Structure formats: structure tokens, C-alpha cells
Amino acid sequence: MTPLAIGITVLFGGAVGVLSGLVGVGGGVVMVPFLYLLFALPEWSGVVVDPSSQVLVAHATSLLVIIPTAISATLSYQKSSLVLWRVALPMAAGAVVAAALGAHVAERLAPEALKAGFGALLLFVGARLLRERRIARGGGARPRRTRPLVTVFCGLVVGFFSALLGVGGGIVAIPLLIYLVGLDVRYVAATSIGLVVFAALAGSTAYVLAGLDVPDLPSGTVGYVYLPAGLALMPGAVAGAVGGASLNQRMSTRGLRILFAVVFLALGLRLFLSNAPALLGAGA
Known about the structure:
Structural class: mainly alpha
Number of domains: 1
Strand order of the largest sheet: 1-2
Distance between the termini: 39 Å
Order of helices and strands: HHHHHHHHHEEHH
Mean pLDDT: 85
Helix content: over 70%
Low-confidence stretches: 134-141
Shape: globular
Strand content: under 5%
């Protein structure tokens, strides 16, 4: 990576962390488009990645960065006893199994399909940000019983999409925890981020193993994980998430949520529409 690219990547990591903590959007949703750009502009970044591998390297690297960020957030939530491990661990078991499948499927899909899929995810995130209301604290109770098969199934879904699209999986886990598991809203975010630790770890490991024998990957990669970008993003992402969470408690984030919802909707629409025609042409 060029010195300019390293500097911008470090700063972007901080921005990712702050955004994640401030408006509750997982870092992978922001990191993946940045990594797409980083690998698509070798004359600026100094990183030459074969076009057929660029998306896979971006997704794998994003998952690596999510691991310490999710661990930091989980430890913070654990101090308040908000992580329900009897829910998170069965889901994590499913996520670990499905993450390997997600990485396997990603390797066999066209890059356009993965980008279109990520565009669809951004559209979903943007729509959720526009609709989501701040949930009042207090009230509710922990679920008296959890259904093991349901929690494991939810983990399978989260792990698959986490690895497939290079995101932590929280954006998928939260509605599943609320509507299928029946978790009280006070525990949803904390339990979700506890699950994300395992999903991201399994996903990044799957990408490492899948890419070990792939030729022509840039220097600094371990499997599909590009370590220079991952290590540059990590410090800011972890520190920024703590700062963003602190700011969240002191200020209204309604305006920011609307702003980023519009950005995600626009970017998601562009990714989806620019890659869908290639898929249709390939299938014709």
C-alpha cells in the first residue's frame, strides 16, 4: 500500500468505528465498499488484486477487522450483563458451520453477483435506518425458555450471510433475535454483537483456508485476507466504536441516521443496478 492509502485507511477505520457506535450500523457495511474502492484503484492504493478476487479479498479483510471491534463491544456489554450467552452460543454454533458454506459459495459466485447482493444489503440497511425508532430503556424480561433448534437455525442464517457478504451479521441477527427468538429488546444488541464475534472469526478463518492455494494474490495476504489494510483499519475501528457509543448517549442521532440511510440507499441502488445487468447477460 502507498503511504497515502495507508493514512486514509487508518482515518477511515476511525470513521467506521464512530459510525458503528453512533448510529448502530455494523462496521462491515461501511468497510466493504471502501475496500472495493481500495482494490479497484491500484494506481492510488498500490495494491494489485486480480479482478476475479477483489470482492473476496474485500469481504475477507472486512471480517478480520470486525473481530476485535466486536470483542471490544461484547466486553463492554458484558459488564452490564446484557449478553445472553444461552442464546448467543447456540446461535454461534450454527454460525460457525454456516460461515464455511458462505465463504465456499462466495468463491463460486461471479463478483457481480456478490456486489449486487451487497447492494441489496445496503438497501435493506438504509430502509431499516429510516424506519427504526429509538427504543426506550427498561421494561420487558428475559425469555423464560429458548428453543434450541430455532436459535441454531438463526445462527446458520447469520453465519452464511456474514461470510458471503463480509459483514458481521448483526444486521441479520437483530430482526431474527426479536421476531423468531423472542428476545427482549434490551438484550438484542448485546447478544447480537456477542454472536458476531464468532461469525466474523469463523468467516475470516474460512476465507483464509479457501485462499491459501490461490495464485497471484498480492503480497501481504493470508488466504484471501489482506493484512496491511486490515491492520490499518483495526485501531481506529476499535477506538472509534467506543467513542461513537459514548457520543450516542449524549446527542440525538436522528439526523445522522437519516443522512446515512440516504447514503446507503443511494450506494446500494448503484451497486445493485450496475451489477445486475451483467448477471442477466451471463444468464441469457
